[in-house]
Design a protein that fits this description.
The protein is of the alpha+beta class and 233 residues long. 42% of the residues lie in helices and 24% in strands. It has one domain (2-232). It contains 7 helices and 10 strands. Strands 4, 5, 6, 7, 9 and 10 form a 6-stranded antiparallel beta sheet that branches. Helix 5 (126-145) packs across helix 7. The radius of gyration is 24 Å and the shape is globular.
């Protein structure tokens, strides 16, 4: 039964280090100032860069297992274009092509990563986490010694503190869950329409299973025709 206590305590410390969600705005570098700029249809300028800093992404990139690629488009043409998400691929050094994650899958990966971090963030103070640890420890000791489990857990007081921490954490995550969905809906650029004379930017999210990144195969649908360009990183 000692294993119960050990794994309970270890779980708390592990999840305490989980990611939280905070989206921050960073300035755009227009395509004409970027080394990997490509031009579609004599006037649609596009650049791309991989986001590697958690602060810019708004979450722990590695833990969420996604690769965020920010796309910036300056449509100086008179045509409307659409990013053809199903034809956009991240190419690795072994020439493997990784497809774009759709909105639902991108959101789910990020939500799964921040769920525990935000829940514990809602507990607000280490003292409450201490109460949670105490309740778990007391429960395990009660099992080990065959004593009254409720008494070992703190005669209800420690259990109540732990329950309060969990309840606060659930509310913290619930608020963040909605924020993630709304933010990504706004920022996800897959299948987005690009109007004439507009600057558009957003993210394509690729699977973190790709261990290297060499280039982006970007496809736009313009006037019913598919055009493809390769952007080097």
């Amino acid at each position: 039964m000692r294993k119960i206590l050990f794994f309970s305590v270890m779980t708390i410390f592990l999840i305490y280090g989980c990611s939280t969600y905070r989206y921050s705005v960073s300035p755009l570098k227009l395509p004409s100032k970027s080394k990997n700029m490509v031009v579609f249809n004599n006037g649609i300028k596009v650049s791309a860069n991989i986001i590697t800093v958690d602060k810019e992404a708004g979450f722990n990139i590695k833990s969420a297992n996604v690769i965020p690629v920010r796309i910036t488009i300056n449509n100086e043409s008179n045509d409307t274009a659409i990013i053809a998400g199903s034809q956009c691929f991240l190419i690795d050094k072994d020439n493997n092509a990784w497809p774009v994650l759709n909105y639902e899958r991108a959101v789910q990966r990020i939500k799964d990563n921040v769920i525990v971090g935000e829940s514990l963030k809602g507990a607000k103070t280490p003292a409450v986490l201490g109460g949670l640890l105490g309740a778990i420890g007391g429960l395990a000791i009660g099992i080990l010694t065959d004593k009254d489990i409720a008494e070992s857990a703190g005669k209800g007081a420690a259990v109540g503190a732990a329950a309060g921490a969990v309840a606060g954490g659930i509310q913290g995550y619930s608020d963040t869950e909605s924020k993630i969905s709304n933010d990504l809906a706004e920022r996800h650029i897959r299948d987005k329409q690009i109007l004439p004379n507009m600057i558009t930017y957003g993210f394509l999210y690729f699977p973190g299973e790709a261990k290297s990144v060499e280039e982006l195969r970007l496809a736009l649908e313009i006037n019913g025709k598919l055009e493809v360009r390769i952007l080097k990183f």
